[in-house]
Amino acid sequence: MTSPRDIIRFLLPVVVLAAGLLLWEAIVRAYDIQPYVLPSPLLVLQTLVGDWDVLSQSLGVTLLTTLEGFVAAAVGGIALALLFNQSKWLEYSLFPYAVVLQVTPVIAIAPLLLIYLQQQTAVIVCAWIVAFFPVLSNTTLGLNSVDRNLSGLFQLYGASRLQTLLFLKLPGALPYILGGLRIAGGLSLIGAVVAEIAAGSAGAGSGLAFRIAESGYRLNIPRMFAALLLLSLAGIVIYGLLALVSHLLLRRWHESALGKES
Amino acid sequence: MASDTKAAAVRLRGVTKIYDTGVAALGPLDLDVISGEFVSLLGPSGCGKSTALRLIAGLSAPSAGTVELAHRGALRPGSHRIGFVFQEPTLMPWATVRDNVRLPFRLAHAPAADADVRIDQALDQVGLAEFADAYPRELSGGMKMRVSLARALVTDPDILLMDEPFAALDEITRFRLNNDLLTLWRSLHKTVIFVTHSVFESVYLSQRVIVMTARPGRIGAEFRITSPEPRGEAFRTSAEYAAFCREVSSALAPSYAGQPGA
Q1: Would you call A252 an interface residue with chain B, using a CB distance cutoff of 8 Å?
Q2: B42 has which bridge partners?
Q3: Do A156 and B57 count as a contact with CB atoms less than 8 A apart?
Q4: Average predicted confidence (pLDDT) for chain A
Q5: What ipTM describes this predicted complex?
Q6: Is the model's pLDDT at A50 over the cut of 90?
Q7: Measured between CA atoms, how close is B108 to chain A, in angstroms?
């Protein structure tokens, strides 16, 4: 079902990208700009291929950190939301601190974490801090959005708390949880990068963000761009994967995953 | 007080409901519904007729008075004394039609060995056998209501409580569901308490119409619709039907007095 409109929607951004790259390349050549000021797109691509050994290793490190932070955020966020849902007292006691953790800029927390924790742990904790809140708040919203009549029905048939949670609240909250996870995926990458940069300036680390910082000190600008490009691609892939999972899980029943024609 | 055919299935004595806000919603209300009877509660919006139904279902507790349900002796596994059909279909959007109808069995403390047979039977009774594997969003409004009815019937309840179940449907669909409901009632011998704000629907369906006054809801008038069963489209256009409707309407009119826009 690809209408001409869909094709145009896909083509337009590609055309814009190509035009931008061409213009960039042309300006670099026309004004003979040095690579340590602004590398041409072609040189960035060459660096990406040439430095692939170093960059791919760093990519692996950053992706692993992101994944660990994301899993911790997903598990932690959903678990906290479930606890809050079962006990209002717990929610009242702890929720404000979740907010505090969320609104404090992670870049300011990272150096402290690096003092108290092992570097690897600190990086993951950073990714977790940034990413868990959207999961927590979305899951809480979902658990509280249960249909009142369905709730009554469960009550009528004598459902236990656990049954209500498993058969009613969790499935009902699934679209919200998946929405939270989609945001958390991108945020855990940001958290990982922030921590790596903070750690990198302390003289350790080997993730992509560390490569960017390191290349900056060495005025290896093409590699900075190449690493940045990889980070950007990683973010896009993470988002795309989570969107795909969300679509696959919801496509049979949830409005958000339905096509326009139905 | 079991086997006598004239035994009361539901007995309300001096039942009142006052909400936490201090609003008196209902009563005092005295009501006896005989086993196997089809009774309609008719009244304006907000007269407490839905509240009365929720009290009978045990979904909320009366502020004063007693609600008694007759005992039929031990229930077979998976059975339930009450079936409830809400104003909305109240289906779980993430579950297929079959799984929605299966819900009472999943929540039951004693598993029903013949659950699958009974689910098929219930779907057959409402004419949805072919749609067992469809999701609610793939069904029309009338079909969703049929699923809701099948779910109420699957536990083989003595008492069927229906809260304006067809109010949101178009007229043709409503007429068809009215007829199907009457057919089911005649063959299954359930006690039905049917809440509606439609004079025509209440007269068409019921053996007894109870007209309720505006808030707090009390019994304003009571009519026995003596027209013989089975009723069908011929009854809907008969002079007898029109006469009953006129009578009930004039009894209902005072309930609307003093309401803006009435």
Answers
A1: yes
A2: B196, B211
A3: yes
A4: 89
A5: 0.85
A6: yes
A7: 7
Domain that holds residue A231: 37-257
pLDDT (0 to 100) of residue B78: 61
Residue B102 burial (10 A CB sphere; 0-12, 13-18, 19+): buried
Q: Do A147 and B90 touch (CB under 8 A)?
A: yes
Whether A54 maps to a domain, the answer reads yes
Residues in contact with A214: Cβ distance below 8 Å, sequence separation at least 6, in sequence order: A200
Query: Residues near B138 by Cβ (< 8 Å), separated by ≥ 6?
Result: B131
Task: Look up the CATH number of the domain holding residue A159.
Answer: 1.10.3720.10
Least confident piece of the model among A44-48, A120-124, A217-221, B33-37: A120-124
Compute the nearest-CA separation of A83 from chain B (Å). 22
* Per-residue confidence (pLDDT) for residue A203, from 0 to 100: 47
CA gap B233, B239 in Å, rounded: 13
**Which residue did the predictor score with more confidence, B84 or B22?**
B84
| A residues 118..147 contacting B (CB < 8 A) | 147
Looking at residue A201, its pLDDT comes to 53
CB contact under 8 A, A152 and B137: no
Instruction: Specify the higher pLDDT residue, B47 or A146.
Output: A146
Q: Is residue A262 part of a domain?
A: no
- Measure A165 CA to nearest chain B CA, in Å: 12
The answer, for A256 touching chain B at a CB cutoff of 8 Å, is no
Counted domains in chain A: 2
Of B87, B92, B135, which is closest to A171 when you measure between CB atoms? B92
Whole-angstrom distance, CA of residue B239 vs CA of residue A62 = 81
A228 and A197, same structural domain? yes
Asked if A95 and A134 sit in the same domain, the reply is yes
